[in-house]
């Protein structure tokens, strides 16, 4: 497995070795040692699986309590995946790292706790599976707006022939980084935003 750093420290891209033969393919999709050999100790407690059609954008979500680290990958289709640094004390606060994840490249994107996460579906449909380091906590989940000008994510909408993404009602109501001082006033354990 090859591990690549990204534009943001702590956000990693794992490129597992894929073994192809006449039957098909095999790859390892998780090893605890991918983390422990980098001094990262996480306990993955929940796996998720979602399916979305072309143009759907899920996110950008994060939980202000029980902040989740997510190891994400695509098993069908093709998505543009984004992690936004929401850690107030981070030099890359408000910055984002992105990765193209697909059934083709089989890459995994590590989104640490303290990051907002979301993805845009570029294929006709995409199935998205991921491991989380804490449980779902809807009471503290918030949405950062996908088009927040302060973050300035360059979503490949035109590549998918899209003007706008398709958003859930919750995501349409997302907050903007510079209009949410109340959100950003509470420190979470570990200096995370909240
Ligand atoms: C996330 C989640 C959702 N749900 C239920 C709650 C709703 O009734 C339904 C759909 O939830 P939601 O619209 O929040 O699903 P997504 O928009 O895919 O949310 C996810 O989107 C981005 C990409 C993320 O990184 C998060 O994992 C998560 O926020 O599933 C659960 O029961 N457990 C869960 O862990």
Write the topology of this structure.
Blueprint: E1 2-5, E2 12-15, E3 18-21, E4 24-27, H1 33-36, E5 46-53, E6 57-63, E7 70-76, E8 78-85, E9 96-102, E10 108-111, E11 115-121, E12 125-132, E13 141-143, H2 169-172, H3 181-185
Antiparallel strand pairs: 1-2, 2-10, 3-4, 5-12, 6-11, 6-13, 7-10, 7-12, 8-9, 8-11
This protein binds dTDP-4-keto-6-deoxyglucose.
Which key terms come to mind for this protein?
mainly beta, Jelly Rolls, binds dTDP-4-keto-6-deoxyglucose, 13 strands
Q: Could you describe the 3D structure shown?
A:
This protein is 7% helix and 39% strand. By secondary structure, it is mainly beta. It has one domain: Sandwich (Jelly Rolls), CATH 2.60.120. The strands form 3 sheets. The chain has a 6-stranded antiparallel β-sheet, with no helix packed on it. The longest helix has 5 residues. The chain is globular, with a radius of gyration of 16 Å. The structure holds dTDP-4-keto-6-deoxyglucose. DTDP-4-keto-6-deoxyglucose (T46) binds next to β5, β6 and β11.
In short, what is this structure?
The protein is mainly β and 194 residues long. It is built from 3 helices and 13 strands. The strands form 3 sheets. A 6-stranded antiparallel sheet has the order 1-2-10-7-12-5, with no helix packed on it.
What share of the residues does DSSP label as strand, in percent? Answer: 35-45%
Enumerate the spans where pLDDT stays under 50 for 5 or more consecutive residues: 185-194
> What characterizes the major β-sheet?
6 strands, antiparallel
CATH topology: Jelly Rolls
What overall geometry do the principal axes of the alpha carbons give?
Answer: globular
How many helix segments? 3
Q: Mind telling me which CATH architecture this is?
A: Sandwich
Strand-pairing-aware structural class: mainly beta
Whole-number average pLDDT? 92
Number of strands: 13
Query: What percent of residues adopt helix (DSSP H or I)?
Result: under 10%
CATH level 4 superfamily? Jelly Rolls
The secondary-structure element order is EEEEHEEEEEEEEEHH
Going across the major beta sheet, what is the strand order?
1-2-10-7-12-5
- Total separate domains: 1
CATH class type: Mainly Beta
Bound ligand species = dTDP-4-keto-6-deoxyglucose
């Amino acid at each position: 497995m090859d591990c690549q750093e990204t534009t943001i420290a702590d956000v990693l891209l794992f490129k597992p070795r894929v073994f192809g033969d006449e039957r098909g393919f095999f790859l390892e999709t998780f090893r605890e040692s991918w983390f422990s050999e980098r001094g990262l100790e996480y306990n993955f407690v929940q796996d998720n699986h979602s399916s979305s059609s072309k143009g759907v954008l899920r996110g950008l979500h994060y939980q202000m309590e029980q902040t989740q680290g997510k190891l994400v990958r695509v098993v069908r289709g093709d998505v543009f995946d984004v992690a936004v640094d929401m850690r107030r004390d981070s030099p890359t606060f408000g910055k984002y790292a992105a990765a193209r994840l697909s059934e083709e490249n089989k890459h995994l994107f590590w989104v640490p706790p303290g990051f907002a996460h979301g993805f845009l579906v570029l294929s006709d449909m995409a199935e998205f599976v991921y491991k989380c380091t804490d449980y779902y906590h809807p009471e503290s989940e918030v949405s950062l707006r996908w088009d927040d000008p302060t973050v300035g994510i360059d979503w490949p909408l035109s590549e998918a022939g899209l003007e706008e993404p398709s958003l859930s009602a919750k995501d349409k109501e997302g907050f903007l980084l510079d209009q949410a001082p109340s959100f950003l006033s509470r420190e979470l354990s570990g200096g995370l935003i909240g």
